Amino acid sequence: MMATTHALAGVVLAVVVAVVFPESAAAATPIPVLAAALGGLFPDFDLYAGHRKTLHFPVYFSALAVPAVAVAAVAPSTLTVSVALFLAAAALHSAMDALGGGLELKPWLGTSERAVYSHYHSRWIPPRRWIRYDGAPEDLLAAGLFALPTLYVFDGPIQLGVYAALGVSAVYVLLRKPMVVVAQTAVDAMPEHVVDRMPERFVEDFR
Ligand SMILES: [Zn+2]
Q1: What would the pLDDT profile of 47-92 be if each residue is shown by its tens digit?
Q2: What's the CA-to-centroid distance between 97 and ligand 1, angstroms?
Q3: pLDDT tens, position by position, 174-200
Q4: What are the phi and psi torsion angles at 109 (to 5°)?
């Protein structure tokens, strides 16, 4: 799934808190919404180093989110609600990745059995491929569906942010496959010794 899909899914958690607890910080300031969006993005910051393993913790983020939610419930403040939403969104992201495609560079071929790493189980969780790959048309559909509750509940900068995320997603979906064709052409044109020096993960499927 696209990072934007994950961010929009995380923000849905903030929307739920804002609707169920209209007196809470989630409804009063945009900070908890921002924290949820960042939590939804955060695991994918490992894109260049051990992607879907280094910062993806399907079990541990969930285990951390539980006490954080409890603290936010007992002592609600902008800080505690934001921390709880950040961790819950990061947990949701890590779990959602199991429903997407594998780690290969052409994930629409469906050849990888690695979707997301569970440090708790010490193994890769296989891809379910409900969303075949990040940037697939159904990925954009999911992003659109996750955007709806937020667009309905919030306006102003939050709404603008959601539209921006959808715009970025749409462009990414259009470019997803052409980008790989460009990368393939580039790797094909490079001398062997240059390709040898590139990180294996970014060239292995192009050889
Ligand atoms: Zn991810």
Answers
A1: 888 889 899 999 999 999 999 999 999 999 999 999 999 999 999 9
A2: 6
A3: 999 998 888 888 888 888 888 888 877
A4: -75, -20
The number of angstroms, rounded, from the C-alpha of 30 to the middle of its chain's C-alpha atoms is 20
* Closest C-alpha to 116, from 48, 43, 199: 43
CA of 205 to the centre of ligand 1 (A): 20
Q: Which amino acid is at 87?
A: L
Q: What is the mean pLDDT of the chain?
A: 93
State the DSSP string of 48-67: TSSTTTSS--TTHHHHHHHH
Answer yes or no: are the C-beta atoms of 165 and 34 closer than 8 Å: no
Which residues place a Cβ less than 5 A from the ion ligand 1? 43-44, 97
Residue with tokens 């939050």: 158
